[in-house]
Structures are given as C-alpha cells and as structure tokens.
Amino acid sequence: ETPSGLSVAPPRQAAAYPTVAALCFRAMAFVRVSLAGRYALAVALPIAGTLLRVLLEPVVGTHLPLITAMPVTAMAVWLLGAGPAVVTAVGGYLGALYLIDRFGFPMSTTLGLMPTSVVYAVMSAALIVFGELPRRSGRRERAAAREARENARRFSVAQESSLVSFVILRVIRDAYGNIVDFACEYANPAAALALQRPLPQILRQPLLAVLPRTFGGPLLDRLVRVVETGIADSGEITLTADGLDRQFQAVVSRLDDGVSIWFMDITERKRTEVALVAADRRKDEFLATLAHELR
Fold first, then answer.
1. What ranges make up the beta strands (E) of 174-245?
2. How many CB atoms lie within 10 A of CB 226?
3. How far apart are alpha carbons 20 and 18 in whole angstroms?
4. Cβ proximity of 80 and 135 under 8 Å
5. How far is CA 223 from the centre of its chain?
6. Nearest 5 degrees, angle CA 43-CA 48-CA 54?
7. Which residues contact 58 (CB under 8 A, 6 or more apart)?
8. Integer distance in angstroms from the first to the last C-alpha of the chain?
9. Cβ count near 246 (within 10 Å)
10. What is d(CA 192, CA 82) in angstroms, rounded to the nearest whole number?
11. Shortest CA distance to 162 belongs to which of 237, 270, 268, 264?
12. pLDDT tens-digit readout, 205-242
C-alpha cells in the first residue's frame, strides 16, 4: 500500500520452472548435438519398440516380433544418423529375441530364425543407407546455406562500412538480346553519396532513367564491352552531367550477366594536380619575366 492509500498489486512472478514444451525442446537439442545423447536415445528407442510390441500382442498376436523394430530404426536414421541407427537396429533384434525367449513369440510362421534374421539385417541396412544419404545431402545443403548467409553478412558489413564506392549492375536487354541499359542491383552508401542520389532512387532502377546523360554514350559502351568480352576495364571516369561534376578512378569487372564497379572519388586530387600545374606554370612565367628584366 502506498503512502496515498492506494493498494499496489505485487508484480507477477516469473514461472519458477520451465514448461514441459521447453524441457522437450532442450532435451531434443541436447540429443541432436551431444554424441552421448544420440546414442542414449538410440538405446532407448528399441526398448520402447519392444514394450510397444508387448502392448500390441492382443491386437496382432504373437507373430512378427520384429514388427516395431523397423519403424524405430527408421526413426533413428531420421533423427540421429547412421551410427546410432545401427545401435537401434541391433537393439530391436535383441528385443525380438527377448520376446521369443520370454513370451514364446515365434520368429515367423514361414521362415526360421536364421532366414528371418538375414532378411531383417538386409532391410535394416538398406533403410540405414538410403535414409542416411538424403540426411547427409540435407546437412551439406544446410551447411552451404549457412555459409552463403555468413558470406552475405560479411559482404554487407564490409560494403556498408567501406569508404570506396561499389555497385553491382544487371544488364537490361531488348527483344533481340541487345544490351540497352543497366539496372542497379546493389549500391553501398558510399556509392549513393558519390552519385549524390538516395539509395531508393538508385536501386533496381534503369540507370538511363536515373542518370540519363551520365550513363549514355561512351560510358554505357564501356560497360557493354566488359559484359560481352569479359575483360575488366580500369581507368578514370569523368561525370559532368545530371548535377554531377566529379572524377572517379574505377575498376569494372563482369559479374554473371552484369558488371561490378569499384570507384573512388578523385575529384579533389585532380583539382590539386591542376592547381599545382597552374602554380608551376605561373612560377615558370615569373622566372622567365624576372630573367628578362634582369638583362
């Protein structure tokens, strides 16, 4: 109760114990990651299958003691992999032998113990092999997908923080397959700053629509030549249209059906060079004039 007389409800306490679902998820995570957990479950599965077979005795009778061994082996392959599945398959067979010895289950009405054992071993081996192949393929695909995502993240972090401008352009072709334009698939913030355009105005837009006078003519021809020949182009690019008055040092390389362009603003450096040349020229003129006056 507060000094003003108002009662305040106590804060709700967090659950002291995790829910059953949370415990199940943690247990499954432990089993999937831990080698000991995987093999522990591989041992538990045939035990559960044997108990289930005992419970099914009023329904299916005492025949086919291995009827639950194959499903638990398939489950072991899917959840745990080939190694634990072998343990489960062996455990299922031992469970069937236990049923035969303890409850008098016949192994088969038509086959003896040895032929039925061979059939079970062959079927279990086929199940493990053909179950493990897609599992490994899926594991490789997931690893490749994770690597691709990580590479994309690293690329994004590197480009977002880079001071060098970078763009990826995709070709736009006409009905006859000729390259008529490029669309920007990616541009880092430095590129947007250099082109003096916001990123939404650049991305996925035809460049001749965004910067019509800049990318028309010789520059477009240079980009088309890189795409068609695959030979990289490096050199200076001067942009003096569409509100731009900048000079860049650029490297253009083919990338799939398009180009990637690294470019760095060298405008200030070029202006400094021009100023130095002008200063040298004025100095030479001054010295020439001074020499003439001293004669």
1. 179-187, 233-239
2. 19
3. 7
4. no
5. 30
6. 135
7. none
8. 106
9. 17
10. 53
11. 264
12. 888 888 887 777 788 888 999 999 999 998 888 877 67
Q: Looking at residue 163, what is its pLDDT?
A: 78
d(CA 238, CA 229): 23
List, for the chain, all residue ranges whose pLDDT scores fall below the cut of 50.
1-8, 11, 13-17, 109-110
Which residue's entry shows tokens 């040349």? 277
Q: Which residue's structure tokens are 């455990």?
A: 91
pLDDT tens track for 135-153? 888 888 888 888 888 887 8
Single-letter amino acid, residue 6: L
Token pair, residue 223, equals 């980009």
* Predicted model pTM: 0.51
What is the reported pLDDT for 1? 45
The token pair that represents 66 in the structure block: 């291995």
Percent of the chain with pLDDT over 70: 81
- Grouping H, G, I as helix, E, B as strand and the rest as coil, residue 105 is coil
Task: Kindly state the percentage of the chain with pLDDT values over 90.
Answer: 11
In whole angstroms, what is the distance from residue 229 CA to residue 113 CA? Answer: 71
Alpha-carbon distances of 30 from 38, 80, 86, 167, 214, rounded to whole Å: 8, 12, 20, 44, 59
- Cα distance between residue 163 and residue 252, in whole Å: 17
Q: Which of 213, 218, 209 is nearest to 181 (CA)?
A: 209
For 198-204, which contacts have Cβ atoms below 8 Å and span 24 or more sequence positions? 202/167
The residue count for the chain: 295
